[in-house]
Design goal:
A hairpin with a 4-residue loop joins strand 6 (100-101) and strand 7. Helix content is 31%, strand content 29%. The termini are far apart. Strands 1-4-3-2 form a four-stranded mixed sheet, with helices on one face. The chain has a four-stranded mixed sheet with strand order 5-8-7-6. The protein has helices spanning 16-26, 85-95, 120-127, 131-141, 149-157; strands spanning 7-12, 30-37, 49-56, 59-65, 77-82, 100-101, 106-108, 114-119. It folds into two domains: 1-70, Signal recognition particle alu RNA binding heterodimer, srp9/1 (2-Layer Sandwich), CATH 3.30.720.100; 72-160, 2,3-Dihydroxybiphenyl 1,2-Dioxygenase, domain 1, CATH 3.10.180. Helix 3 crosses helix 4 (131-141) and helix 4 (131-141) packs antiparallel against helix 5 (149-157). It has 160 residues and is an alpha/beta fold.
Length: 160
């Protein structure tokens, strides 16, 4: 039995190829893979894009143009861990363009896909073992839409 990396399939109505190029324009380490078109066998119109393989930061995705039957919801999201505030700002600004800010680092992009743009430092804060500091950082996070690392650090240190 071989072990291969997982591929996340994203179901779109008809915008799979557009979305793949959009995401590849945001994530610097990305690449386009195979594009499959519907044949006369369907179910889509012959010649239109059925699937698009692409990678973002080494993660494999498959955009499927499957029609309007299914839509994204917040039960599934993609987490982008960020090293610093500049990285958070970069991804947040681009992924919310045409989408919407939600809360606690969550956003919904213009295709309806949910993302979490999270500083790695926050994950360290809330899993580091000091429950009092973790509670302060969590309380600060709950007041935010986009993460503010400096504010989280102040809360964690008890100086906010």
């Amino acid at each position: 039995m071989t072990s291969k990396p997982f591929t996340t399939c994203l179901w779109f109505d008809t915008q799979g190829e557009e979305a793949a190029h959009y995401y590849m324009g945001i994530f610097k380490d990305s690449r386009l893979g195979r594009v499959q078109r519907y044949t006369s066998a369907g179910p889509g119109a012959e010649g239109t894009v059925a699937t698009v393989e692409f990678e973002l930061n080494g993660q494999k995705f498959l955009a499927l143009n499957g029609g309007p039957l299914y839509q994204f919801n917040a039960a599934v999201s993609i987490v982008v861990e960020c090293a610093d505030q500049a990285e958070i700002d970069y991804y947040w600004d681009r992924l919310t363009d045409g989408g919407q800010e939600v809360a606690c680092g969550w956003l919904v992009d213009k295709y309806g896909l949910s993302w979490q743009v999270v500083p790695t430092r926050f994950l360290d804060m809330v899993t580091g073992g000091d429950q009092e500091k973790a509670a302060r950082a969590t309380a600060a996070m709950l007041t935010m839409q986009k993460f503010d690392i400096a504010a989280l650090e102040r809360a964690y240190a008890g100086t906010a």
